[in-house]
Protein backbone atom coordinates (compact mmCIF):
# COMPACT_ATOMS: atom_id res chain seq x y z
CA UNK A 1 0.00 0.00 0.00
CA UNK A 2 1.35 3.39 -1.00
CA UNK A 3 -0.23 6.84 -0.92
CA UNK A 4 0.64 9.75 -3.16
CA UNK A 5 -0.57 12.97 -1.59
CA UNK A 6 -1.78 12.79 2.01
CA UNK A 7 -3.52 15.74 3.71
CA UNK A 8 -3.77 16.13 7.46
CA UNK A 9 -6.15 18.63 9.01
CA UNK A 10 -5.05 19.30 12.57
CA UNK A 11 -1.36 18.51 12.99
CA UNK A 12 -1.45 17.86 16.74
CA UNK A 13 -0.33 14.77 18.61
CA UNK A 14 -2.69 12.47 16.71
CA UNK A 15 -2.30 13.92 13.21
CA UNK A 16 1.46 14.44 13.48
CA UNK A 17 2.03 10.91 14.82
CA UNK A 18 0.04 9.53 11.88
CA UNK A 19 2.24 11.55 9.50
CA UNK A 20 5.38 10.30 11.19
CA UNK A 21 4.14 6.72 11.14
CA UNK A 22 3.43 6.86 7.40
CA UNK A 23 6.79 8.48 6.75
CA UNK A 24 8.62 5.87 8.80
CA UNK A 25 6.89 3.20 6.69
CA UNK A 26 7.77 5.13 3.50
CA UNK A 27 4.09 4.88 2.64
CA UNK A 28 3.41 8.42 1.39
CA UNK A 29 4.96 10.62 -1.31
CA UNK A 30 3.94 13.93 0.19
CA UNK A 31 2.21 14.97 3.40
CA UNK A 32 0.57 18.39 3.60
CA UNK A 33 -0.62 19.82 6.90
CA UNK A 34 -3.54 22.18 7.42
CA UNK A 35 -4.59 23.87 10.64
CA UNK A 36 -5.90 26.94 12.40
CA UNK A 37 -2.57 28.20 13.72
CA UNK A 38 0.17 28.90 11.14
CA UNK A 39 2.75 28.86 13.92
CA UNK A 40 2.19 25.23 14.90
CA UNK A 41 2.05 24.18 11.24
CA UNK A 42 5.38 25.91 10.74
CA UNK A 43 6.75 24.03 13.76
CA UNK A 44 5.54 20.70 12.30
CA UNK A 45 7.20 21.61 9.02
CA UNK A 46 10.46 22.55 10.76
CA UNK A 47 10.39 19.19 12.57
CA UNK A 48 10.04 17.43 9.20
CA UNK A 49 6.64 16.01 10.15
CA UNK A 50 4.90 17.52 7.14
CA UNK A 51 6.41 18.30 3.75
CA UNK A 52 4.36 21.40 3.14
CA UNK A 53 2.16 23.86 5.02
CA UNK A 54 -1.18 23.85 3.23
CA UNK A 55 -2.71 27.21 2.38
CA UNK A 56 -5.76 26.78 0.20
CA UNK A 57 -7.07 23.21 0.32
CA UNK A 58 -8.86 23.25 -3.09
CA UNK A 59 -6.20 21.86 -5.42
CA UNK A 60 -4.59 19.68 -2.75
CA UNK A 61 -7.89 18.01 -1.86
CA UNK A 62 -8.55 17.23 -5.51
CA UNK A 63 -5.22 15.44 -5.84
CA UNK A 64 -5.18 13.76 -2.43
CA UNK A 65 -5.25 9.98 -2.05
CA UNK A 66 -6.00 10.22 1.65
CA UNK A 67 -7.22 12.96 3.97
CA UNK A 68 -7.11 12.57 7.75
CA UNK A 69 -9.14 15.06 9.79
CA UNK A 70 -7.54 14.99 13.24
CA UNK A 71 -8.98 18.11 14.87
CA UNK A 72 -11.28 18.16 17.93
CA UNK A 73 -14.65 16.79 16.81
CA UNK A 74 -16.30 20.19 17.21
CA UNK A 75 -14.28 21.55 14.29
CA UNK A 76 -14.95 18.68 11.92
CA UNK A 77 -18.29 19.80 10.43
CA UNK A 78 -16.73 23.01 9.13
CA UNK A 79 -13.71 21.20 7.72
CA UNK A 80 -15.92 18.63 5.98
CA UNK A 81 -17.93 21.48 4.43
CA UNK A 82 -14.77 23.18 3.32
CA UNK A 83 -13.24 20.18 1.55
CA UNK A 84 -16.41 18.55 0.18
CA UNK A 85 -16.60 20.54 -3.09
CA UNK A 86 -13.07 19.54 -4.09
CA UNK A 87 -12.94 15.78 -3.33
CA UNK A 88 -11.25 13.89 -6.17
CA UNK A 89 -12.91 10.73 -7.46
CA UNK A 90 -10.20 8.62 -5.79
CA UNK A 91 -9.86 10.67 -2.58
CA UNK A 92 -10.60 8.87 0.67
CA UNK A 93 -11.38 10.91 3.78
CA UNK A 94 -11.06 9.54 7.30
CA UNK A 95 -11.02 11.10 10.75
CA UNK A 96 -9.59 10.58 14.22
CA UNK A 97 -12.58 11.72 16.25
CA UNK A 98 -13.28 10.18 19.67
CA UNK A 99 -17.00 10.02 18.85
CA UNK A 100 -18.48 8.60 15.69
CA UNK A 101 -22.25 9.16 15.54
CA UNK A 102 -21.97 12.94 15.37
CA UNK A 103 -18.99 12.85 13.01
CA UNK A 104 -20.84 10.56 10.59
CA UNK A 105 -23.85 12.89 10.72
CA UNK A 106 -21.68 15.90 9.92
CA UNK A 107 -19.96 13.97 7.14
CA UNK A 108 -23.29 12.98 5.58
CA UNK A 109 -24.43 16.60 5.65
CA UNK A 110 -21.23 17.83 4.03
CA UNK A 111 -20.36 15.09 1.56
CA UNK A 112 -23.87 14.17 0.37
CA UNK A 113 -23.55 11.78 -2.61
CA UNK A 114 -19.87 11.39 -1.92
CA UNK A 115 -20.40 10.01 1.61
CA UNK A 116 -19.03 6.65 0.44
CA UNK A 117 -15.59 8.29 0.29
CA UNK A 118 -15.63 8.91 4.05
CA UNK A 119 -14.42 6.06 6.29
CA UNK A 120 -14.87 7.03 9.97
CA UNK A 121 -12.12 6.12 12.41
CA UNK A 122 -10.89 6.54 15.98
CA UNK A 123 -7.31 5.86 17.08
CA UNK A 124 -7.23 4.93 20.79
CA UNK A 125 -4.12 6.81 21.71
CA UNK A 126 -5.12 9.82 23.74
CA UNK A 127 -2.69 11.45 26.10
CA UNK A 128 -2.54 14.57 28.21
CA UNK A 129 0.36 15.71 26.11
CA UNK A 130 -0.68 17.43 22.93
CA UNK A 131 0.81 19.17 19.96
CA UNK A 132 3.04 18.09 17.10
CA UNK A 133 6.17 18.34 19.25
CA UNK A 134 4.88 15.47 21.42
CA UNK A 135 4.19 13.26 18.37
CA UNK A 136 5.98 9.99 17.71
CA UNK A 137 6.23 7.65 14.73
CA UNK A 138 5.47 4.75 17.07
CA UNK A 139 2.55 6.30 18.96
CA UNK A 140 0.16 3.78 17.37
CA UNK A 141 2.41 0.76 17.80
CA UNK A 142 0.21 -1.93 19.31
CA UNK A 143 -2.62 0.56 19.95
CA UNK A 144 -6.15 -0.06 18.76
CA UNK A 145 -7.72 1.97 15.98
CA UNK A 146 -11.47 1.50 15.57
CA UNK A 147 -13.05 2.01 12.16
CA UNK A 148 -16.83 2.34 11.96
CA UNK A 149 -17.45 1.89 8.21
CA UNK A 150 -20.61 3.06 6.47
CA UNK A 151 -22.83 0.93 4.25
CA UNK A 152 -21.81 3.25 1.42
CA UNK A 153 -18.06 2.56 1.79
CA UNK A 154 -16.32 0.50 -0.87
CA UNK A 155 -14.57 -2.50 0.64
CA UNK A 156 -11.26 -1.46 -0.92
CA UNK A 157 -11.51 2.04 0.60
CA UNK A 158 -12.05 0.59 4.08
CA UNK A 159 -9.06 -1.65 3.40
CA UNK A 160 -6.89 1.32 2.41
CA UNK A 161 -7.64 3.20 5.62
CA UNK A 162 -7.08 0.02 7.60
CA UNK A 163 -3.70 -0.49 5.92
CA UNK A 164 -2.65 3.12 6.55
CA UNK A 165 -3.15 2.62 10.30
CA UNK A 166 -1.53 -0.80 10.21
CA UNK A 167 1.52 0.79 8.58
CA UNK A 168 1.65 2.96 11.72
CA UNK A 169 1.68 -0.23 13.82
CA UNK A 170 -1.97 -0.17 14.90
CA UNK A 171 -4.31 -3.06 15.65
CA UNK A 172 -7.37 -2.11 13.57
CA UNK A 173 -10.85 -3.14 14.74
CA UNK A 174 -14.27 -2.71 13.17
CA UNK A 175 -17.37 -1.64 15.12
CA UNK A 176 -20.62 0.03 14.15
CA UNK A 177 -20.75 3.70 15.14
CA UNK A 178 -23.45 3.27 17.76
CA UNK A 179 -21.62 0.44 19.55
CA UNK A 180 -18.42 2.47 19.37
CA UNK A 181 -20.06 5.46 21.00
CA UNK A 182 -21.64 3.36 23.76
CA UNK A 183 -18.41 1.50 24.55
CA UNK A 184 -16.28 4.65 24.68
CA UNK A 185 -18.89 6.57 26.68
CA UNK A 186 -18.31 3.87 29.33
CA UNK A 187 -14.58 3.20 29.24
CA UNK A 188 -13.28 6.64 28.32
CA UNK A 189 -15.75 9.54 28.35
CA UNK A 190 -17.32 8.72 31.73
CA UNK A 191 -13.98 8.33 33.57
CA UNK A 192 -12.86 11.70 32.20
CA UNK A 193 -16.08 13.33 33.39
CA UNK A 194 -15.71 11.70 36.83
CA UNK A 195 -12.10 12.82 37.24
CA UNK A 196 -12.87 16.37 36.09
CA UNK A 197 -15.81 16.51 38.54
CA UNK A 198 -13.66 15.48 41.49
CA UNK A 199 -10.80 17.89 40.89
CA UNK A 200 -13.13 20.78 40.07
CA UNK A 201 -15.10 20.15 43.25
CA UNK A 202 -11.95 20.06 45.40
CA UNK A 203 -10.49 23.16 43.74
CA UNK A 204 -13.58 25.21 44.65
CA UNK A 205 -13.40 24.48 48.39
CA UNK A 206 -12.02 26.92 50.95
CA UNK A 207 -9.58 24.21 52.12
CA UNK A 208 -8.50 23.23 48.59
CA UNK A 209 -4.81 23.77 49.44
CA UNK A 210 -5.04 21.41 52.40
CA UNK A 211 -6.75 18.73 50.31
CA UNK A 212 -4.19 18.91 47.52
CA UNK A 213 -1.40 18.92 50.12
CA UNK A 214 -2.47 15.53 51.50
CA UNK A 215 -3.46 13.98 48.18
CA UNK A 216 -1.07 11.17 47.31
CA UNK A 217 -0.37 8.51 44.69
CA UNK A 218 -3.91 7.13 44.51
CA UNK A 219 -5.31 10.59 43.83
CA UNK A 220 -2.54 11.28 41.33
CA UNK A 221 -3.43 8.33 39.12
CA UNK A 222 -7.19 8.64 39.58
CA UNK A 223 -7.11 12.27 38.41
CA UNK A 224 -4.41 12.10 35.76
CA UNK A 225 -7.02 12.37 32.99
CA UNK A 226 -8.41 15.55 34.59
CA UNK A 227 -5.37 17.28 33.09
CA UNK A 228 -6.76 16.57 29.60
CA UNK A 229 -7.70 19.25 27.10
CA UNK A 230 -10.95 20.95 28.27
CA UNK A 231 -12.09 22.06 24.79
CA UNK A 232 -11.56 18.60 23.33
CA UNK A 233 -13.50 16.96 26.17
CA UNK A 234 -16.30 19.50 26.04
CA UNK A 235 -16.71 18.60 22.36
CA UNK A 236 -16.64 14.87 23.10
CA UNK A 237 -19.10 15.23 25.98
CA UNK A 238 -21.57 17.13 23.82
CA UNK A 239 -21.06 14.95 20.76
CA UNK A 240 -21.74 11.78 22.73
CA UNK A 241 -24.10 13.20 25.31
CA UNK A 242 -26.88 10.64 24.91
CA UNK A 243 -24.61 7.67 25.57
CA UNK A 244 -22.68 9.60 28.21
CA UNK A 245 -25.85 10.53 30.10
CA UNK A 246 -26.90 6.88 30.08
CA UNK A 247 -23.49 5.89 31.50
CA UNK A 248 -23.61 8.65 34.09
CA UNK A 249 -27.03 7.52 35.30
CA UNK A 250 -25.92 3.91 35.44
CA UNK A 251 -22.87 4.94 37.45
CA UNK A 252 -25.02 7.12 39.72
CA UNK A 253 -27.16 4.06 40.48
CA UNK A 254 -24.02 2.05 41.32
CA UNK A 255 -22.91 4.80 43.70
CA UNK A 256 -26.32 4.78 45.34
CA UNK A 257 -25.96 1.04 46.01
CA UNK A 258 -22.61 1.64 47.72
CA UNK A 259 -24.11 4.58 49.59
CA UNK A 260 -26.85 2.34 50.90
CA UNK A 261 -24.29 -0.24 52.06
CA UNK A 262 -22.42 2.53 53.90
CA UNK A 263 -25.61 3.86 55.49
CA UNK A 264 -26.42 0.32 56.67
CA UNK A 265 -22.79 -0.31 57.77
CA UNK A 266 -23.08 -3.38 55.55
CA UNK A 267 -19.47 -4.53 55.43
CA UNK A 268 -20.34 -7.69 53.54
CA UNK A 269 -21.95 -5.77 50.67
CA UNK A 270 -18.99 -3.36 50.50
CA UNK A 271 -16.42 -6.15 50.57
CA UNK A 272 -18.29 -8.00 47.83
CA UNK A 273 -18.30 -4.95 45.52
CA UNK A 274 -14.66 -4.15 46.26
CA UNK A 275 -13.52 -7.75 45.78
CA UNK A 276 -15.41 -8.09 42.50
CA UNK A 277 -13.78 -4.88 41.26
CA UNK A 278 -10.34 -5.92 42.49
CA UNK A 279 -10.60 -9.28 40.70
CA UNK A 280 -11.79 -7.70 37.46
CA UNK A 281 -9.09 -5.02 37.60
CA UNK A 282 -6.35 -7.53 38.32
CA UNK A 283 -7.52 -9.82 35.51
CA UNK A 284 -7.51 -6.90 33.10
CA UNK A 285 -4.05 -6.62 31.70
CA UNK A 286 -3.35 -3.71 29.45
CA UNK B 1 16.81 8.91 69.32
CA UNK B 2 17.24 5.21 69.94
CA UNK B 3 14.73 2.49 70.78
CA UNK B 4 15.42 -0.70 72.68
CA UNK B 5 12.69 -3.22 72.00
CA UNK B 6 10.24 -2.40 69.18
CA UNK B 7 7.10 -4.48 68.57
CA UNK B 8 5.24 -4.52 65.28
CA UNK B 9 1.77 -5.99 65.03
CA UNK B 10 1.04 -6.74 61.38
CA UNK B 11 4.27 -7.19 59.44
CA UNK B 12 2.87 -6.29 56.02
CA UNK B 13 4.09 -3.63 53.62
CA UNK B 14 3.60 -0.80 56.13
CA UNK B 15 4.89 -2.53 59.27
CA UNK B 16 7.81 -4.25 57.55
CA UNK B 17 8.92 -1.03 55.84
CA UNK B 18 8.87 0.74 59.21
CA UNK B 19 11.04 -2.06 60.64
CA UNK B 20 13.45 -1.81 57.73
CA UNK B 21 13.60 1.97 58.00
CA UNK B 22 14.47 1.82 61.73
CA UNK B 23 17.06 -0.87 61.09
CA UNK B 24 18.63 1.12 58.27
CA UNK B 25 18.91 4.06 60.69
CA UNK B 26 20.31 1.74 63.39
CA UNK B 27 17.61 3.13 65.65
CA UNK B 28 16.37 -0.07 67.33
CA UNK B 29 18.07 -2.83 69.32
CA UNK B 30 15.49 -5.48 68.60
CA UNK B 31 12.37 -5.69 66.46
CA UNK B 32 9.77 -8.35 67.21
CA UNK B 33 6.94 -9.09 64.81
CA UNK B 34 3.45 -10.30 65.68
CA UNK B 35 0.68 -11.30 63.31
CA UNK B 36 -2.17 -13.64 62.45
CA UNK B 37 -0.26 -15.84 60.01
CA UNK B 38 2.89 -17.56 61.33
CA UNK B 39 3.99 -18.22 57.74
CA UNK B 40 4.28 -14.55 56.79
CA UNK B 41 6.03 -13.75 60.10
CA UNK B 42 8.51 -16.53 59.36
CA UNK B 43 9.05 -15.01 55.90
CA UNK B 44 9.70 -11.57 57.45
CA UNK B 45 12.17 -13.21 59.85
CA UNK B 46 13.91 -15.03 57.01
CA UNK B 47 14.24 -11.73 55.13
CA UNK B 48 15.88 -10.19 58.20
CA UNK B 49 13.08 -7.66 58.60
CA UNK B 50 12.31 -8.73 62.19
CA UNK B 51 14.70 -10.19 64.72
CA UNK B 52 12.19 -12.47 66.33
CA UNK B 53 8.75 -13.93 65.72
CA UNK B 54 6.61 -12.94 68.68
CA UNK B 55 4.56 -15.66 70.35
CA UNK B 56 2.98 -14.38 73.52
CA UNK B 57 2.99 -10.57 73.67
CA UNK B 58 2.83 -10.26 77.51
CA UNK B 59 6.50 -9.98 78.45
CA UNK B 60 7.53 -8.28 75.21
CA UNK B 61 4.89 -5.58 75.57
CA UNK B 62 6.06 -4.87 79.11
CA UNK B 63 9.64 -4.31 77.93
CA UNK B 64 8.82 -2.50 74.69
CA UNK B 65 9.86 1.11 74.08
CA UNK B 66 7.66 1.39 71.03
CA UNK B 67 4.77 -0.62 69.62
CA UNK B 68 3.46 -0.05 66.09
CA UNK B 69 0.09 -1.56 65.24
CA UNK B 70 0.06 -1.80 61.46
CA UNK B 71 -2.86 -4.15 60.79
CA UNK B 72 -6.07 -3.23 58.94
CA UNK B 73 -8.03 -0.88 61.20
CA UNK B 74 -10.73 -3.52 61.74
CA UNK B 75 -8.28 -5.67 63.71
CA UNK B 76 -6.94 -2.90 65.93
CA UNK B 77 -9.55 -2.95 68.72
CA UNK B 78 -8.75 -6.58 69.51
CA UNK B 79 -4.98 -5.98 69.45
CA UNK B 80 -5.33 -2.95 71.73
CA UNK B 81 -7.37 -5.07 74.17
CA UNK B 82 -4.77 -7.80 74.02
CA UNK B 83 -1.76 -5.61 74.81
CA UNK B 84 -3.39 -3.11 77.22
CA UNK B 85 -2.86 -5.14 80.41
CA UNK B 86 0.88 -5.44 79.83
CA UNK B 87 1.92 -1.89 78.80
CA UNK B 88 5.13 -0.85 80.56
CA UNK B 89 5.28 2.58 82.15
CA UNK B 90 7.61 3.78 79.39
CA UNK B 91 5.93 1.95 76.49
CA UNK B 92 4.55 4.11 73.67
CA UNK B 93 1.96 2.66 71.31
CA UNK B 94 1.26 4.10 67.87
CA UNK B 95 -0.62 2.85 64.83
CA UNK B 96 -0.63 3.09 61.05
CA UNK B 97 -4.37 3.16 60.47
CA UNK B 98 -5.85 5.08 57.55
CA UNK B 99 -8.64 6.41 59.77
CA UNK B 100 -8.15 8.01 63.14
CA UNK B 101 -11.49 8.74 64.86
CA UNK B 102 -12.43 5.08 65.18
CA UNK B 103 -8.89 4.01 66.13
CA UNK B 104 -8.74 6.59 68.90
CA UNK B 105 -12.12 5.42 70.17
CA UNK B 106 -10.94 1.80 70.25
CA UNK B 107 -7.72 2.85 71.97
CA UNK B 108 -9.59 4.79 74.65
CA UNK B 109 -11.79 1.77 75.30
CA UNK B 110 -8.81 -0.57 75.60
CA UNK B 111 -6.16 1.56 77.29
CA UNK B 112 -8.35 3.49 79.74
CA UNK B 113 -6.10 5.45 82.13
CA UNK B 114 -3.11 4.64 79.96
CA UNK B 115 -4.55 6.35 76.87
CA UNK B 116 -1.79 8.98 77.12
CA UNK B 117 0.65 6.28 76.01
CA UNK B 118 -1.11 5.98 72.65
CA UNK B 119 -0.04 8.42 69.90
CA UNK B 120 -2.25 7.90 66.80
CA UNK B 121 -0.58 8.02 63.38
CA UNK B 122 -1.12 7.45 59.66
CA UNK B 123 1.71 6.99 57.16
CA UNK B 124 0.57 8.08 53.67
CA UNK B 125 2.22 5.33 51.73
CA UNK B 126 -0.45 2.97 50.53
CA UNK B 127 0.10 0.82 47.51
CA UNK B 128 -1.66 -2.03 45.75
CA UNK B 129 1.30 -4.21 46.57
CA UNK B 130 1.15 -5.69 50.02
CA UNK B 131 3.07 -8.04 52.27
CA UNK B 132 6.49 -7.95 53.88
CA UNK B 133 8.20 -9.09 50.68
CA UNK B 134 7.18 -5.81 49.02
CA UNK B 135 8.53 -3.71 51.90
CA UNK B 136 11.41 -1.26 51.53
CA UNK B 137 13.60 0.65 53.97
CA UNK B 138 12.98 3.79 51.92
CA UNK B 139 9.21 3.43 51.50
CA UNK B 140 8.65 6.48 53.73
CA UNK B 141 11.39 8.61 52.20
CA UNK B 142 9.78 11.97 51.50
CA UNK B 143 6.29 10.61 52.26
CA UNK B 144 3.97 12.29 54.72
CA UNK B 145 3.10 10.71 58.05
CA UNK B 146 0.22 12.36 59.89
CA UNK B 147 0.08 12.17 63.68
CA UNK B 148 -3.16 13.10 65.42
CA UNK B 149 -2.04 13.46 69.06
CA UNK B 150 -4.40 13.29 72.00
CA UNK B 151 -4.70 15.89 74.77
CA UNK B 152 -3.45 13.16 77.12
CA UNK B 153 -0.19 12.61 75.20
CA UNK B 154 3.07 13.79 76.77
CA UNK B 155 4.94 16.13 74.44
CA UNK B 156 8.05 13.94 74.61
CA UNK B 157 6.07 10.85 73.60
CA UNK B 158 4.68 12.63 70.53
CA UNK B 159 8.23 13.69 69.78
CA UNK B 160 9.52 10.11 70.03
CA UNK B 161 6.95 8.80 67.54
CA UNK B 162 7.68 11.75 65.27
CA UNK B 163 11.40 10.99 65.39
CA UNK B 164 10.85 7.30 64.67
CA UNK B 165 9.07 8.18 61.43
CA UNK B 166 11.62 10.86 60.59
CA UNK B 167 14.36 8.25 60.96
CA UNK B 168 12.49 6.37 58.21
CA UNK B 169 12.71 9.50 56.05
CA UNK B 170 9.14 10.74 56.53
CA UNK B 171 7.79 14.28 56.57
CA UNK B 172 5.71 14.26 59.79
CA UNK B 173 2.60 16.45 60.06
CA UNK B 174 0.18 17.09 62.90
CA UNK B 175 -3.60 17.24 62.44
CA UNK B 176 -6.52 16.68 64.77
CA UNK B 177 -8.25 13.35 64.20
CA UNK B 178 -11.48 14.82 62.87
CA UNK B 179 -9.72 16.99 60.28
CA UNK B 180 -7.58 14.02 59.31
CA UNK B 181 -10.62 11.87 58.70
CA UNK B 182 -12.40 14.55 56.67
CA UNK B 183 -9.35 15.29 54.53
CA UNK B 184 -8.63 11.62 53.78
CA UNK B 185 -12.29 10.84 53.14
CA UNK B 186 -11.99 13.36 50.31
CA UNK B 187 -8.56 12.76 48.83
CA UNK B 188 -8.21 9.03 49.40
CA UNK B 189 -11.28 7.12 50.56
CA UNK B 190 -13.74 8.65 48.07
CA UNK B 191 -11.50 8.03 45.01
CA UNK B 192 -11.12 4.39 46.05
CA UNK B 193 -14.87 4.02 46.39
CA UNK B 194 -15.42 5.68 42.99
CA UNK B 195 -12.89 3.46 41.24
CA UNK B 196 -14.26 0.29 42.85
CA UNK B 197 -17.80 1.32 41.83
CA UNK B 198 -16.84 1.80 38.19
CA UNK B 199 -14.95 -1.47 37.75
CA UNK B 200 -17.56 -3.48 39.65
CA UNK B 201 -20.33 -1.98 37.52
CA UNK B 202 -18.50 -2.80 34.26
CA UNK B 203 -17.61 -6.30 35.40
CA UNK B 204 -21.28 -7.15 35.99
CA UNK B 205 -22.42 -6.25 32.47
CA UNK B 206 -23.10 -8.82 29.75
CA UNK B 207 -20.61 -6.99 27.47
CA UNK B 208 -17.91 -6.68 30.17
CA UNK B 209 -15.30 -8.35 27.94
CA UNK B 210 -15.91 -5.83 25.18
CA UNK B 211 -15.64 -2.90 27.59
CA UNK B 212 -12.38 -4.13 29.10
CA UNK B 213 -11.07 -4.87 25.59
CA UNK B 214 -11.41 -1.24 24.52
CA UNK B 215 -10.39 0.31 27.85
CA UNK B 216 -7.07 2.10 27.46
CA UNK B 217 -4.52 4.16 29.38
CA UNK B 218 -7.00 6.63 30.88
CA UNK B 219 -9.06 3.79 32.33
CA UNK B 220 -5.91 2.03 33.52
CA UNK B 221 -4.79 4.94 35.68
CA UNK B 222 -8.28 5.93 36.81
CA UNK B 223 -8.95 2.41 38.10
CA UNK B 224 -5.51 1.47 39.41
CA UNK B 225 -6.70 1.89 43.01
CA UNK B 226 -9.59 -0.53 42.35
CA UNK B 227 -6.95 -3.27 42.61
CA UNK B 228 -6.48 -2.39 46.30
CA UNK B 229 -7.15 -4.79 49.15
CA UNK B 230 -10.96 -5.21 49.55
CA UNK B 231 -10.88 -6.13 53.25
CA UNK B 232 -8.68 -3.16 54.13
CA UNK B 233 -10.93 -0.78 52.20
CA UNK B 234 -14.11 -2.24 53.64
CA UNK B 235 -12.66 -1.52 57.10
CA UNK B 236 -11.67 2.02 56.11
CA UNK B 237 -15.07 2.70 54.52
CA UNK B 238 -16.92 1.58 57.64
CA UNK B 239 -14.50 3.26 60.06
CA UNK B 240 -14.84 6.60 58.30
CA UNK B 241 -18.38 6.23 57.01
CA UNK B 242 -19.74 9.53 58.32
CA UNK B 243 -17.09 11.62 56.57
CA UNK B 244 -17.16 9.34 53.53
CA UNK B 245 -20.93 9.66 53.16
CA UNK B 246 -20.61 13.45 53.36
CA UNK B 247 -17.97 13.34 50.60
CA UNK B 248 -20.02 10.98 48.48
CA UNK B 249 -23.05 13.26 48.68
CA UNK B 250 -20.97 16.30 47.84
CA UNK B 251 -19.54 14.47 44.85
CA UNK B 252 -23.01 13.30 43.81
CA UNK B 253 -24.12 16.94 43.78
CA UNK B 254 -21.14 17.85 41.59
CA UNK B 255 -22.05 15.06 39.16
CA UNK B 256 -25.63 16.34 39.06
CA UNK B 257 -24.36 19.78 38.03
CA UNK B 258 -22.41 18.23 35.16
CA UNK B 259 -25.41 16.10 34.28
CA UNK B 260 -27.54 19.23 34.03
CA UNK B 261 -24.98 20.88 31.76
CA UNK B 262 -25.05 17.79 29.53
CA UNK B 263 -28.86 17.73 29.47
CA UNK B 264 -28.85 21.41 28.46
CA UNK B 265 -26.00 20.86 25.96
CA UNK B 266 -24.33 23.69 27.86
CA UNK B 267 -20.82 23.55 26.42
CA UNK B 268 -19.75 26.67 28.27
CA UNK B 269 -20.57 25.19 31.67
CA UNK B 270 -18.79 21.93 30.81
CA UNK B 271 -15.71 23.71 29.49
CA UNK B 272 -15.57 25.87 32.60
CA UNK B 273 -15.66 22.84 34.93
CA UNK B 274 -13.13 20.94 32.83
CA UNK B 275 -10.77 23.91 32.55
CA UNK B 276 -10.93 24.60 36.27
CA UNK B 277 -10.10 20.95 36.98
CA UNK B 278 -7.33 20.89 34.38
CA UNK B 279 -5.69 24.00 35.85
CA UNK B 280 -5.91 22.67 39.41
CA UNK B 281 -4.57 19.27 38.39
CA UNK B 282 -1.68 20.77 36.44
CA UNK B 283 -0.80 23.11 39.29
CA UNK B 284 -0.76 20.18 41.67
CA UNK B 285 2.65 18.65 41.58
CA UNK B 286 3.19 15.53 43.56
UniProtKB/TrEMBL annotation, chains A, B:
It catalyses: prephenate + NAD(+) = 3-(4-hydroxyphenyl)pyruvate + CO2 + NADH. GO terms for biological process: tyrosine biosynthetic process. Its EC number is 1.3.1.12. Keywords: Amino-acid biosynthesis, Aromatic amino acid biosynthesis, NAD, Oxidoreductase, Tyrosine biosynthesis. InterPro entries: 6-PGluconate_DH-like_C_sf, NAD(P)-bd_dom_sf, PDH_C, PDH_N, Preph/Arog_dehydrog, Prephen_DH. PROSITE patterns: PDH_ADH (PS51176). GO terms for molecular function: NAD+ binding; prephenate dehydrogenase (NAD+) activity; prephenate dehydrogenase (NADP+) activity. SUPFAM superfamilies: 6-phosphogluconate dehydrogenase C-terminal domain-like (SSF48179), NAD(P)-binding Rossmann-fold domains (SSF51735). The keyword Oxidoreductase applies. Pathway: Amino-acid biosynthesis; L-tyrosine biosynthesis; (4-hydroxyphenyl)pyruvate from prephenate (NAD(+) route): step 1/1. It holds the Pfam family PDH_C. Gene3D superfamilies: 6-phosphogluconate dehydrogenase C-terminal like domain, NAD(P)-binding Rossmann-like Domain. Transmembrane segments: none annotated. Residues 4-286 form the Prephenate/arogenate dehydrogenase domain. Belongs to the prephenate/arogenate dehydrogenase family. This is prephenate dehydrogenase.
